[in-house]
């Protein structure tokens, strides 16, 4: 597919600079140097080819700002980086939000953090920050927020509505699963519009990354997604390992797979309990937490913590696993398999649960590329896309497993996908234990102060919520020049205004719960 796209761009988009890159070294196959005059044509080309907007971020090179667009395809891996340089004093670029809906949020984020104005964007208000911010936080030099930008960023206010009323879901509300606020415009019990308001937990992880070495930043990623901490830990170390050409021993790769899948199951168990609790069923919540405790006990034995794990290291692991870990993991596999029958009777076949989720919150498959959503959310629509298969890491390429998919993309499908994923994760763990090789658990002579070669890299892993992408720009120092985190809950939540419109508020609560949101990963 890479060759086809390369040729099509050469033949279709005249004057566009395109080059092939080393996927193994850079994480993307093609690189395009765009101009303001042709960025819309380039974006429309990828939209027409069925690509989704994987990420959109900005890098401040002081002399200029660079907008970086990543496009990918769900059917066949083909990642393309499009770079657009804009001037640093009055940066501006055409909006692509009318082509890709998710760009609406990406552009708002870039505007408030870098000061880039996106022409013809309909709502360049604050997405994360607040009106006391007096400079653009991710600029390398202190660049004050202009008065025009301050007025524009603060322009979001709910309009008066004579025939209805507004409801604030959150920021302190159990259905939002964290400090999330959704401004809901109502007509009786039906939703007219829903506007998520983010930023209540924003901690500037990407700015912290610029002021810490790669090693010092290790504890940060697990705190973005506290429920899938090992997968975030893995995303960080594997990206840096690829950038520095660090080879990881086979034993460490298998142990990474086992522990990441245990973490995936613990995350899914918590979600099942919380999702059913959102709908009024509190009993399953107690059972899922009971089962989850077994995993926390197992992982605590090797990682020393029960939530924000920081177990992986550049080149391997913090320590090796022992027979006690293996035995406890095998016992847990047997235990959880015996519990699925109970969950089926208690939840899956419960007529009240089925009536609350079936046919509600339907996401059509053709909408997926517009939002760039991922994980169980898109697999529920019938798209068999999983980073563990399309871009294998750790030991996933040596283990056979299937990708469960749904049919119509409703709340019930999203539930069934996660139940099936837990069963598959048990199979992955079991096979990884059987194939677990002997040998070292970490590479020798990995320097404590890593200084990667100059350049950039984009790398992805499959978190419990979907595609986690890490983009690093290196300037040959031990601190990343720019580290960008593309998180799955962000783009998944972007679909909520679309799915909630016209729904009963009780059904919208079920849809919001079906996403399995972790708000700190959205806020970063």
Features:
Beta Polymerase, domain 2, 2 domains, 20 helices, Cytochrome-c3 Hydrogenase, chain B, alpha+beta, 524 residues, 17% strand, five-stranded mixed sheet
Topology:
Layout: H1 2-12, E1 17-20, H2 23-26, E2 30-34, H3 39-48, E3 52-60, E4 64-72, E5 80-87, E6 92-94, H4 103-114, E7 117-119, H5 147-153, E8 165-169, E9 181-187, E10 190-197, H6 205-209, H7 221-224, H8 229-244, H9 250-278, H10 283-303, E11 312-313, E12 316-317, H11 323-348, H12 351-357, H13 368-371, H14 376-379, H15 387-390, H16 411-435, E13 455-463, E14 466-474, E15 482-486, H17 488-493, H18 496-500, H19 505-514, H20 519-523
Parallel strand pairs: 2-5, 6-7
Antiparallel strand pairs: 1-2, 3-4, 4-5, 8-9, 9-10, 11-12, 13-14, 14-15
Helix pairs in contact: 8-9, 9-10, 9-16, 9-19, 10-11, 11-16
CATH superfamily of the largest domain: Cytochrome-c3 Hydrogenase, chain B
Judging from the principal axes of the Cα atoms, what is the shape?
A: globular
First and last CA, distance: 34 Å
User: For the residues shown, what is the average pLDDT?
Assistant: 90
Low-confidence stretches: none
Output the strand order for the largest sheet: 1-2-5-4-3
Strand content: 15-25%
Number of structural domains: 2
Helical fraction equals 40-55%
CATH domain fold name of the largest domain: Cytochrome-c3 Hydrogenase, chain B
Counting helices, strands and paired strands, the structural category is alpha+beta
- What is the CATH architecture term of the largest domain? Orthogonal Bundle
Record field, number of beta strands: 15
User: What is the count of DSSP helices, taking H or I runs of 4+ residues?
Assistant: 20
CATH class of the largest domain: Mainly Alpha
* Oligomeric assembly: single chain
Rg, Å, rounded: 23 Å
What characterizes the major β-sheet?
5 strands, mixed
